Amino acid sequence: MDRMSTRGPGNGLTLIELLLALVVLCVAVTLASPLLGSLLAHNRLEADAKRLLGALRLARSEAVQGNGVVSVCPARVLAGSEPRCAGSYRDGWIVYANRDRGAQRQPATDRLLGVFAGLPPGYRVTNRRDTRAASSQINYLPDGTTHRNLTLQICPPRADVAPLSIVLNSVGRARLQRDWGTCTPGM
After folding, report:
1. Percent of the chain residues past pLDDT 70, beyond the cut
2. Which of 22, 28, 141, 143 shows a CA-CA span of 20 to 30 A to 14?
3. Residue 113, CB half-sphere, CA atoms under 13 Å: how many?
4. 3-state secondary structure of 94
């Protein structure tokens, strides 16, 4: 008897079966890629919103612990330069102990508590109606309050991703809120 005839059927794949599996895989990837892009954009948006929320919580905590005013302001931080309050939160932001309660950080007297990089290209921080860029300084008082209500809405570049808002109440509590405002596509 021939050695080959005693073996059962082959355990491998034929070329046609392999090609068919490859076609099914390509179709699945093609259908899933827009969903994956949307998921990645949503995750990026949430991560950046949580960075800004974390800066606000840091400021509130430091204001209460240090019994002084702590401010969060938009700042574009350039390499080798001292961070200054200017621009929009889209460019980045800083947290500092604001000893003189001024609108600008004084490097000689105001202690810098945190420097945060800006948002990725296409993302922006606006008011709840998306009519203007968010650029005002937020001051936390020694009791942890801000004495103002404010919404910072982060708009993603993709229309299929819902914006996230950071809602700040007058008692100083900041929270993350989904679908709290509208973003104008293409702005």
Report:
1. 93
2. 28
3. 23
4. strand
